[in-house]
Every structure is written in C-alpha cells, then in structure tokens.
Amino acid sequence: MAAKARGAFTLIVALAALTHSAATAAAASVENTRDARIFELLDDDQDGKVSMMEFKNNQMLVFYILDRNKDLALSADETFLPANVFATFAGMDGKIDTLEFLDIVDSAFKQADTNHDGYLDRQEFITLLNRVRNQ
Question: What residues does the EF-hand domain cover (predicted)?
Fold first, then answer.
C-alpha cells in the first residue's frame, strides 16, 4: 500500500516536472517553489491545508491531464512512472483506470496525513513529496 501512495504522489509531481534535477542550491530553490505552487493549486479555499475533498477534486484533474489519449485509463507512457512501479498499480488490463487511480490516491492521502486530522498541511505534503523523490 505504501508503494501505491508513493505512486500517486509521483503522478502529481510528474505534472510539475518531467525530470528531477540534481540536488544543487539553485535546483532546491526551484523545487521548493514548485512544491509550494503545487500545494497552493491543491488548496482550493486557500486555508493553508488540503482536505480530502480538495485533494480528490484535483486528483481527477491530474488524471485527465495525464490521460493524453482520453481513453479513461493511464498507460505506462502517460504516467512517467518506471515500468516496474507502473506494473504495481496497473490492473489486469495493464492500465490504471479511474477507479484504480482513486484507490491509489486515497491511500496516499491517508498515509500523508500523519497527524490524522483529515487534512494535509504544507509540511505533511512536502514531507511526502520528498519521500517520493527519494524512493
């Protein structure tokens, strides 16, 4: 289940950057700015935290953006995931459909909500992004 959570956030992070830069001071600054912007986009009501509903609303946007051929399923080349990671999430058809995607993201949210308050604060979100990047 932890692998699925990492994969969901990998999909979100992949929208912001197709590649991960080497850790330099300049790259870290750009990465921090990008992470803050992703959090702001997810935080629809701008209250400084992302609710499950905000997360769910935006996760489908992420799905539809990634689904370039609009077949309502993500193929390996649409996700930016390594083949072995993609295979972990893909169903019997070799694709990630909307229900599989929702399941992955639900578990990712729950894992990231370390204080179990039903919200992701900025630190919880950044911590999970960093964990995904370091896998």
Answer: 100-135
CATH number for region 2-133: 1.10.238.10
Could you give the C-alpha distances from 87 to 2, 21, 92, in angstroms and in order?
Answer: 15, 25, 10
| Alpha-carbon gap, residue 129 to 39, rounded angstroms | 10
DSSP result, 82-105: -HHHHHHH--TTSSEEHHHHHHHH
The percent of residues above 70 in pLDDT, for the chain, comes to 76
Name the region of 121 (left: φ>0; alpha: ψ -120 to 50; beta: rest): beta
What number of other Cβ atoms are within 10 A of residue 71's Cβ? 11
Q: What angle do CA 12, 18, 24 make, to 5 degrees?
A: 105
Residues 6+ apart with CB under 8 A from 48: 121, 122
Give per-residue pLDDT as tens, 52-106.
999 888 888 878 888 889 999 999 888 767 778 788 888 889 999 988 888 877 7
Torsion on CA atoms 3, 80, 34, 1, rounded to nearest 10: -10
